[in-house]
Design goal:
The protein is mostly helical. It has 6 helices and 3 strands, in the order H-H-E-H-H-E-H-E-H.
Length: about 170
């Protein structure tokens, strides 16, 4: 799918009057790849808000849960130290990874949100995952039809953060 049809581009168009959205995502990236790139991105863009939506590829690769959690936590800390507010966006993995691993993975996001006192989108694909009409043939990635709902989900959580920043300025 072309980047301009993705949820980040749709969100950027929707919020164009109140925010500039920088899409720093890399398809297929893990949390460790994101962590390696994050300091440079924070320095280059000096964002007011970081939307952290990462970890799904770690889960699909069966990475140890403590590793995923610790890497996300480090990214949160770096973002906060740069002065940015953070919106954490959760992900789930398919149940074929086993109940223990799947639930453990899903619980990473609310645990980090509580630990770091962050707003949380519990599951980016709420109402999308499991609906074959909204998923690509792999059953894992959402298709173009799902992107507006994803943009709305993140936008609903992001707007209060942006409004609070606007009130401070």
């Amino acid at each position: 799918m072309a980047p301009e049809k993705g949820w980040v581009a749709l969100l950027a168009r929707d919020l164009a009057d109140s925010a500039t959205i920088i899409n720093a995502s890399v398809s297929g990236e893990t949390t460790e790849g994101g962590l390696q790139r994050l300091p440079g991105l924070l320095q280059e863009h000096a964002p007011d808000v970081v939307v952290l939506e990462l970890g799904g590829n770690d889960g699909l690769r069966g990475y140890p849960l403590t590793r995923v959690r610790n890497t996300l936590s480090e990214m949160i800390t770096l973002s906060r130290e740069s002065g940015a507010k953070i919106l954490l966006v959760g992900m789930r993995i398919p149940p074929n990874y086993g109940r223990r691993y799947s639930l453990g993975f899903e619980n990473i996001y609310p645990a980090l949100a509580e630990e770091h006192t962050l707003p949380l989108v519990p599951f980016l694909l709420e109402g999308i995952a499991g609906d074959a009409t909204l998923m690509q043939n792999d059953g894992i990635h959402p298709n173009a039809q799902a992107q507006p709902a994803m943009a709305a989900t993140v936008g609903d959580a992001l707007r209060p953060i942006l409004m609070a920043l606007e009130e401070k300025n």
